[in-house]
TrEMBL record:
Keyword annotations from UniProtKB, A to Z: Lipid metabolism, Methyltransferase, S-adenosyl-L-methionine, Transferase
Domain DUF7884: 22-99
Taxonomic placement: Bacteria, Pseudomonadati, Pseudomonadota, Betaproteobacteria, Burkholderiales
Stored Gene3D superfamilies: Vaccinia Virus protein VP39
UniProt-listed InterPro entries: CFA/CMAS, CMAS, DUF7884, SAM-dependent_MTases_sf
One Pfam family, short name: DUF7884
Protein name per UniProt: Cyclopropane-fatty-acyl-phospholipid synthase
Top-level taxonomic group: Bacteria
PANTHER family: CYCLOPROPANE-FATTY-ACYL-PHOSPHOLIPID SYNTHASE
Coiled-coil portions: none
Origin species: Cupriavidus malaysiensis
Family (UniProt): Belongs to the CFA/CMAS family.
Length: 412
């Protein structure tokens, strides 16, 4: 009993110091509510933007070192509740994490993970994230079920239009022609290969490691009457054989692993026709060293969202691409586009919140809710980025390249 009382007294002292520090140096619009009924204002405000309820004393250590990882963990485990507008909740989370970084005298320690990325592990990681259920994703994705960054030419398009624009932008970038063969690595629910066959007249192979994606994409191909031009495979990219005129990889290479990037790009080179073009579309880190940032929530993401996911810096992408035998021809940053895409997803998720909670349970509801909104904020504040890189086999003649990028934007 004596030791428990001493521990509780020390915890109360740390809590008082933490609250005083935040009021003086951070002024965060949060009303803190403890399990015992005590309430504290963490800032000087008329109305709090967010109410943070600590449901049990065991949650206080998460709060006293409130990194995004700790806050996310406490929220998912239902040790804390967060009430307010979702954008305010995410903003407050970043403010609390920034205050913790300041108190620590600099960046909080980050660990550089070294994942093995065996075929079995990668398949398990993919199925963990994508096989929640197709009905779950249908509730908040666009009708085409495109689960990657959309492309907003003006900024006021609806999500479905922007996703179709993204697919057309990619296929136009690689100059896809009728009758050509296209391999889509990580095809999702089939939207890109369906469009490539319908509009561009290509013959396509789409691969995925997700059983749910494979099943639905196969159904969609049959329903569209394209079974003679589109094949969906449940297959690892390392097992693909053959030659393709064009290759796309959209939102997939984040699962490859940084140490495997040279082998990944080498595999694309082996599969690409001598006069072919490929495009890699993927999320990158702003950190050129270990690929994390002080407030990126990477531990939370690895534990709950994308197991074994790794984000390289764009510099590493281009270096490993060249080492893999590919020449980068065009690099386009789409950070603002992914910010808007994620805001769309998060809004749609909120609108379907009760249905989603009933479908997948409280824990997964909380995981995806905080993940979508948190990523939107991360793209807005340069915690994450996204690049499309068009490439071809290195060592080819320059005379076959276009003079300008105009062809990417001319409407057919």
């Amino acid at each position: 009993m004596f030791f428990k009382q001493a521990f509780d007294k020390q915890l109360d002292k740390q809590l008082d110091h933490w609250i005083s520090d935040l009021r003086e140096n951070a002024d965060i619009p949060v009303q803190l509510r403890l399990w015992n009924g005590m309430e504290y204002a963490l800032g000087r405000f008329e109305r709090p933007a967010v109410t943070l309820t600590v449901r049990e004393a065991a949650a206080l250590p998460f709060l006293l070192t409130p990194s995004l990882d700790n806050l996310g963990e406490a929220y998912v485990q239902e040790k804390i509740d967060l009430d307010g507008k979702l954008a305010d909740i995410i903003s407050v989370g970043y403010q609390l994490s920034a205050a913790a970084t300041r108190r620590a005298g600099g960046a909080l320690a980050k660990v550089a993970h070294h994942f093995t990325h065996s075929k079995q592990e990668d398949k398990a990681s993919i199925q963990y994230h994508y096989d929640v259920s197709n009905d779950f994703y249908k509730l908040w994705l666009d009708p085409g079920m495109v689960y990657s960054c959309a492309y907003f030419e003006r900024g006021d398009e609806d999500l479905a239009t922007a996703q179709l624009q993204k697919i057309d932008h990619i296929l136009t970038k690689i100059r896809l022609q009728p009758g050509q063969t296209l391999l889509d690595i990580g095809c999702g629910w089939g939207a890109l290969v369906l469009r490539a066959a319908q509009k561009f007249g290509a013959r396509c192979v789409g691969i995925t490691l997700s059983q749910n994606q494979f099943d639905l994409a196969t159904e969609r191909v049959k329903a569209a009457g394209l079974a003679d031009r589109v094949e969906i495979r449940l297959q690892d990219y390392r097992d693909i054989r053959g030659t393709f005129d064009r290759i796309t990889s959209v939102g997939m290479f984040e699962h490859v692993g940084k140490k495997n990037l040279i082998a990944y790009f080498s595999r694309i080179r082996e599969l690409l026709a001598d006069d072919g073009f490929a495009m890699n579309h993927g999320i990158t880190s702003p950190d050129p060293d270990i690929g994390t940032s002080p407030m990126d929530g990477s531990e939370f993401m690895d534990r709950y969202v994308f197991p074994q996911g790794e984000l390289p810096h764009i510099g590493l992408v281009l270096t490993t691409m060249q080492k893999g035998g590919l020449e980068a021809l065009d690099v386009e940053g789409l950070r603002r586009h992914y910010m808007k895409t994620l805001h769309n997803w998060a809004d749609r998720f909120e609108q379907q919140g009760e249905t989603i909670r009933a479908m997948v349970g409280e824990k997964k509801y909380r995981i995806w809710r905080i993940y979508l909104a948190g990523c939107a904020h991360a793209f807005e504040t340069d915690q994450m980025a996204l690049f499309q890189v068009v490439c071809r086999k290195a060592g080819r003649s320059a005379t076959t390249l276009p003079w300008s990028r105009r062809y990417m934007y001319d409407k057919s």
